[in-house]
Amino acid sequence: MKILEPVSSSEDPAVQSLLGYAHAGLKNFDAAVESFEKALEKKRDIRFGYALAYTLESMGAPERAASLYKDLTSAPLPKPLMLKVHHGLARCSLVVNDPKTALYSYKYIIQEDQTKLEPYLGILKLMKAAGTSKGIDKLRERGDLLHSKNYSYCYWIGSVHFEAGEYDKALDMFRACIKLDKDNSSPYYYIYRILRKSGKTAEALQELERFHALNPNLPYIFFNAAIDAGRANRPDIAFKFMRTALTMDRALLGRDDQGTLAAVEKFVKARGTAEEKAFFKPFLAFINSEFSNASRQMRALLPSLKNPILRADAERLIAEADVVLKRESAYNAYLAKANAERNAVIAALKKQLESRSATAPEDPGSRLDDIKRAALNNPRNAKLQYATALKLARAGDIPGAKLFLNETLRVNPDIGEAHFSLAKILHFEGNRTDAVAQLQQAIRIKPSDSQSRSLLASILLEEGETEKAEQEARASLLNNPNNGEARLVLARALAKSDRRESALEEVEAGLGLETDPARHTDFVELQKTLKEGR
To answer: By C-alpha distance, which of 127, 103, 185 is closest to 151?
Structure first.
């Protein structure tokens, strides 16, 4: 940019195109578009056209980018560039909900270069979205020759068959996926669902047991599987799955276990091993939120545990209990300080409102004073306190909003929305610790609170706790699959864990649903980064 600055006003298309590339490299997309358009005005060069289309796609303008890509498909382009153009056209067509054009481009790419994996995956995803497997055999005639050993290829074939209700074929593909990547959780989940649908509960549980030995990091699946195991009269498996699920995500305690814990307790007392019986006492304390007792008892027991899975659960319980105790201690200190500050602020505000001279009724400041005065005169009305907080927040009075959110929770600490609203303000102020505490309170009140879980996931990712962020994001999406924030956090967490293909799948799902312009841009930028890193 420094080199080009003296000639930045030049009408030479070569200069303007170089400026376009420089601006794009610095992510100044608007300036890049302007430069490429100037270059195209002077010279109809296909390279400039492609650069402009790609820049428009990168900046989140898929309609304009798709139009340019479509125009370029009729130009006499070299084969490598034509393939890039069709890739771009397919991507943008999906975003603007034009699957017909996307399918046309994917088929063109396969016809010209069968080695490319992306068009096969693109067509399979379109089939899955349509809920049909029509044409999949013909697609595989070419695809299997080059891609049958690729995990993503096999996974999406299995997904298509699953959505089409062809469970035997889906089962074969998901088993093939496990052979290719035994540590990826998705195939196990699908196999479990297929076997359950087929009434083969015992076999389904065996599949999850095999996966549990490799990777127990699926608390929501294992919680449901524990219930299935209880129904199948396998309390031993139910105990294994339930303790893993609950020590990984205590929020699951808010869900109906349909009597599974009671059955597990009965089993352990009657037929459990000596280690299982010893484990169950602190485990029960943990379930009952007696975290200090649970941590102390499990620490004393830990050295004697020989079973590696039981030991791993014990270590996780201790760690989780200690985190809760630390956070509760910090939260109690925070509440004590907040109460002292609150009394001082309330007194000062009352004095200020009493002494303030009358102003014109239409004055915005006067209206806010009336709102505050009404809330102060009705300190036990939680609904009024919360409504006041929201009005002040919308008016930009953040300190006032915080004050009345705290007043709301003082009157009624079980209003999850107030905890969430306060957490948003605290996060905005950079106070992540207190924000997390508020979100955890909101989730305790309502475990299915998708927005609190997605914000918590976002904060955990900022703190570098990638695994926990992923878990919270998945929990949020279970309750609301259209939560864009959760989808973006999940994609970023997967990217940080070097699971690029899975991250791209989440990005594409997010792009298909996201309506918020800023978050849509975040998805587009993440997609570009992931594809460049392939």
So the answer is: 185
Per-residue model confidence (pLDDT) at position 66: 93
385, 390, 391, 397 alpha-carbon torsion, rounded to 10°: 100
Tokens for 189, please give them: 């989940």
Residue pair 20/55 in contact by the 8 Å Cβ criterion: yes
Question: Based on the number of CB atoms within 10 Å of its own CB, is 102 exposed (0-12), middle (13-18) or buried (19 or more)?
Answer: buried
Q: CATH topology of 1-113 equal to that of 330-532? A: yes
**Residue type at 184?**
N
Domain ranges of the chain: 1-113, 330-532
The backbone torsions φ and ψ at residue 11, rounded to the nearest 5 degrees and listed phi first, read -95, 5
Tell me the whole-structure pTM to 2 decimals.
0.53
Q: Is 269 helix (H, G, I), strand (E, B) or coil?
A: helix
pLDDT digits (tens, 9 = 90+) for 433-483: 889 999 999 988 888 889 999 999 999 999 888 888 998 999 898 888 889
Measured CA to CA, the distance from residue 420 to residue 456 in angstroms comes to: 10
**Amino acid sitting at position 234:** R
Burial grade of 390 (CB within 10 A; 0-12, 13-18, 19 or more): middle
Q: Which CATH architecture has domain 330-532?
A: Alpha Horseshoe (1.25)
254 close to 447: Cβ distance less than 8 angstroms: yes
Q: State the burial class of residue 260 (Cβ atoms within 10 Å of its Cβ: 0-12, 13-18, 19+).
A: buried
Fold adopted by 1-113: 1.25.40
Q: Does 84 have pLDDT greater than 70? A: yes
Instruction: Specify burial of residue 231 (Cβ count, 10 A radius: 0-12, 13-18, 19+).
Output: middle
CA 449 centroid distance within chain: 14
Residue 263: how many other CB atoms lie within 10 Å: 21
Which pLDDT tens digit goes with each residue over 308-365?
Answer: 889 989 998 998 888 888 876 765 675 577 667 666 766 776 666 666 654 445 455 5
In 164-259, which residue ranges form alpha helices assigned H by DSSP? 167-180, 186-197, 201-214, 219-231, 235-248
> Is the predicted pLDDT of residue 122 greater than 90, yes or no?
yes
Q: Cα separation of 177 and 150, whole Å?
A: 8
C-alpha 190/C-alpha 167 separation (Å) is 10
Comparing C-alpha atoms, which of 302, 305, 298 is closest to residue 274?
305
Over 50: is that where the pLDDT of 266 sits?
Answer: yes
- Sign of torsion, CA 410 412 414 418? negative
